[in-house]
Design goal:
2 domains; 3 helices; elongated
């Protein structure tokens, strides 16, 4: 018996013991369908820009991000893989800015390789291990249902087109999914569908067929209308973005009748 015990003890001492498997930390919550306001960039506060515009990001469910660098609007692609996060080339409007926040914000996005959400705050990381930018969650974007009139169209090559009379370019997005439109000299309707994440689908407009005067934005709007891909409401204005980042229409609430 003693010999058997000794042999067993020796065998156990020579047999590799199974080591406990290290647990893989769970990935952070997904960013899809969320919106965030920047509070810190490269370790310093991110103050609001002119007109109290904040730097923020909105991640839709289709791999697109939109928002503001506190001065200019931006949109572009993003890629998620576990806690890996990268941003593609951003299309940015070209207003002159008076602070360095926009440049630092865009540099932080370019350098991002992964992210985490700690204590409810989104933190973007690069190669250094220190947060490039820190965000707090912001409220969901409001619905676009309502009556709007055109302010301007801005393409990504900085071409800006404004209507001679805003009241001739009006759009009423009804809650049931119908849109009523006046596009200069023609009137008509179409359908619309949106998601809380900012995606937008518009049918072609069925309009009357009067010939509008030279200089009208009618033909461009009618042609581009079905190509609107996303929307954002900022500071009370509605922004409709075309596919492939080719331009943004800005609309304002239709004034109430006096």
């Amino acid at each position: 018996m003693a010999l058997t015990h000794a042999v067993l003890t020796l065998w156990l001492s020579l047999t590799p013991q199974a080591q406990p498997q290290a647990k893989t930390p769970p990935p952070p919550p997904t960013l899809k369908g969320t919106a965030w306001t920047a509070v810190e960039i490269y370790g310093t506060p991110a103050p609001a820009g002119p007109d109290k515009k904040e730097a923020y990001l909105f991640f839709d469910n289709a791999g697109r991000v939109s928002g503001s660098d506190s001065c200019n609007r931006l949109t572009g692609p993003y890629t998620l893989k576990g806690n890996g996060l990268s941003f593609g080339k951003m299309a940015v409007t070209t207003m002159a800015c008076i602070t360095d926040v926009p440049d630092r914000f865009l540099a932080a996005l370019k350098g991002t390789s992964h992210y985490d959400i700690i204590d409810g705050k989104l933190q973007l990381y690069g190669a250094t291990g220190k947060p490039l930018a820190v965000f707090t969650r912001r409220a969901p974007e409001p619905t676009l249902a309502g009556k709007w009139q055109l302010v301007k169209f801005q393409s990504m090559d900085d071409t800006t087109l404004t209507p001679a009379d805003r009241s001739k370019y009006t759009f009423e997005f009804q809650p049931g999914g119908k849109v009523l439109a006046q596009v200069d000299c023609n009137r008509g309707s179409g359908t619309w569908k949106s998601t809380p994440e900012g995606q937008l689908r518009l049918s072609p407009l069925a309009l009357t067929r009067m010939a509008c005067p030279p200089g009208s934005l009618h033909d461009q709007i009618v042609r581009q209308w079905p190509n609107m891909a996303s929307y954002l409401i900022r500071d009370g204005h509605l922004f409709l973005a075309l596919k492939v980042d080719s331009g943004i229409y800005e609309l304002e609430p239709l004034p109430q009748p006096k």
